[in-house]
Amino acid sequence: MKKREQLEKTSLLIRRNIIEMCSSTRSGHIGSSLSVVDILVVLYENIVKGSPPDPERDRVILSKGHACAALYAILGYKGWITAERLKSFATNGCLLGHHPHWEPDIGLEANTGSLGHGLSIGCGLAFAAKKMRSSSRTFIILSDGEANEGSVWEAAAFAAHQKLNNLCMILDANSYQAMGHTKDILDPINHVEKWKAFGWHTIEIDGHNVMALNNTFMKFGLTQKPFAIIANTIKGKGISFMENNILWHYRSPQGKEYELAMKELQ
């Protein structure tokens, strides 16, 4: 079990790797990737059991697939994706594109990025694991903008009805989506109340507090309900001029911006 200092150090490294990957190819969704880093680090360092190709392994699906630079970086850190493949990120003919493609041997458990699909896939995995009496658990990471999709709520209702307590949904609630603030585009009213109303055991936390994340994940599976974590995060977390700045949904840092970003992550 990794401690706070170790987890925070790993998060810093992952953020640096994201900046390097996206800057070198002038692509990627940096703001969205940076907000989800601490969630992924705690999951892969302390919570997820097993690794490919173990059929009993836990599955992690990044439904907000546009933030895949963060997922690739943590899988590279774990040694599941080689450094050579990471360098090819988002280049012509590469196998690591702007959205994950199914390749379970390296930890990519589903094709994602068409928003609204990940939770349905996760429900299928969790339901199958129940039927097969498997110990495998499924973790799905959604964005708050993605929660505008009706398919998310169809899946949420199914999971509650089937009592899928081996399914954990983490909402990366950074309050922004591609074109603006989530409340201005489609106000979610209250994430916690909505997931509770759909029958999920729901906890709200600071999505950048690694120990709060760790302690909350440890409560997963203790009830007969699917588990929802509302993780309040900051888009562009870790780099002052990117935080809560919608411009960094698509931009990549070049020149002085790159130098300043890397300096802040030292």
- The total of beta strands comes to 7
DSSP helix count?
11
Main sheet overview: 5 strands, parallel
Structural class: alpha/beta
CATH fold-level name: Rossmann fold
The CATH class designation is Alpha Beta
User: What is the CATH architecture assignment?
Assistant: 3-Layer(aba) Sandwich
Distance, first to last CA = 24 Å
Radius of gyration: 17 Å
| CATH homologous group name | Thiamin diphosphate (ThDP)-binding fold, Pyr/PP domains
| String of helices and strands | HHHEHHHEHEEEHHEHEH
The low-confidence parts are: none
Percentage of β-strand residues: 5-15%
What would the principal axes of the Cα set say about the shape?
globular
How many domain modules?
1
Helical residue percent band: 40-55%
Kindly report the average pLDDT value: 95
Biggest sheet: strands side by side, in what order? Answer: 1-2-3-7-6
Polypeptide structure, described:
The protein has 266 residues and is of the alpha/beta class. The chain has a single domain, classed as Thiamin diphosphate (ThDP)-binding fold, Pyr/PP domains (Rossmann fold, 3-Layer(aba) Sandwich), CATH 3.40.50. The protein contains eleven helices and seven strands. The strands form two sheets. It has a five-stranded parallel β-sheet, with helices on both faces. α1 (4-25) crosses α4 (68-77), α3 crosses α10 (210-217) and α6 runs parallel beside α7. The longest helix is centred in the N-terminal third of the chain and has 22 residues, at 4-25. It is globular. The model has no long low-confidence stretch (mean pLDDT 95).
